[in-house]
Amino acid sequence: xxxxxxxxxxxxxxxxxxxxxxxxxxxxxxxxxxxxxxxxxxxxxxxxxxxxxxxxxxxxxxxx
Length: 64
Description:
By secondary structure, the chain is mostly helical.
């Protein structure tokens, strides 16, 4: 069951978020607050947990 939660995009573990849920929460923040700073060529440090980073990498690399 854990493997299914870790490998799935939209399957939620009990009491948790799916990768889809995480992406829906993280990506708007990235686009509104972080991307503009990067476009100004500012250095940005992103500190996050694994699923948040997975969602961000999938978005930036156009992965499905």
